[in-house]
Amino acid sequence: MTSIEFTKMHGAGNDYVYVNGFANSLPNDLEKLAIDISHRRFGVGGDGLILILPSKQADAQMRMFNADGSESEMCGNGIRCVAKYVYDHGIATRDQLRIETGAGILSLQIHAKNGLAEQITVDMGEPRLEASLIPTTLAPAGQHVVNVPIEIKGRKLFATCVSMGNPHCVIFVPEVDDELVLGIGPLIEKDDRFPKKVNVEFVEVLARGEVNQRTWERGSGETWACGTGASAVCVAGVLTGRTDRTIVNNLIGGQLKLTWDESTNHVMMTGPATEVFTGRWQVHA
């Protein structure tokens, strides 16, 4: 039996278990490790597992596994925590970092206080809007999915779909409630019209510059925050005419600031990253 060191971190309540692959040998079965270590009763507990690994192209590589063991391309809150770990633990101590992900290499700006990263701005890149790139069959391959009606359990909802390196279905509603998030969310996640499944955001617009968001996350269930989802909401708000290009997004775990820059077409996200505790995990064969 071997053990590995881990660090529990969260970005606005979106919590993951982080393992430093620069310093730890990893087991072969990463899917099993993610399932076991993420369990909130029998494990450390978290929305998933994130590995911080060496990269030939960037300061570090991030690999992300959901709580069900499935691997995902990117996590906006997770990458902020990766950047904080890389900066705080001396892997790379520049204010500008580059992190390799399954959605490409992203640039991050560290806002430090007393030598530790506190707030982090992530260049989330360009949103992908074509139906085939999300992917979804809610519209023909080259078209955008904006306010497209879908019926789930007899309820007519309107979907706007955005990929931020991973797929999102944004649904604006007068009020976000458990029936939507916990009842409708998992049905949309696994709907056949989303061949790679989908993250689902239910959004209440408070003003043109402020929204409330709850997320049913693909492979993890409801999470307290979703950075790629918040970015998708920023884009969807503009596409549907509901919000400005800069918004404050209120999530269960805290606030994120988003801007969809008209000149670059990139989404910029700023938010916190917090280290909670460290420990050792026994790896069972």
Task: Based on the model shown, name its key terms.
18 strands, 2 domains, 18-stranded mixed beta sheet, 16% helix, Diaminopimelate Epimerase, Chain A, domain 1, 285 residues, single chain, alpha+beta
Brief overview, please?
The protein is built from four helices and 18 strands. It has 285 residues and is of the alpha+beta class.
Folded structure, characterized:
- The protein has 285 residues and is an alpha+beta fold.
- It folds into two domains: 2-124 and 272-283, Roll (Diaminopimelate Epimerase, Chain A, domain 1), CATH 3.10.310; 131-265, Diaminopimelate Epimerase, Chain A, domain 1 (Roll).
- 16% of the residues lie in helices and 44% in strands.
- The protein is built from four helices and 18 strands.
- The protein has helices spanning 30-38, 76-88, 178-189, 227-239, and strands spanning 2-11, 14-20, 48-53, 60-66, 71-72, 96-101, 104-113, 116-123, 148-152, 155-163, 167-172, 199-207, 210-217, 221-223, 246-251, 254-260, 267-272, 274-283.
- The protein has an 18-stranded mixed sheet that branches.
- The longest helix has 13 residues, at 76-88.
- The termini are close together.
- The mean pLDDT is 97.
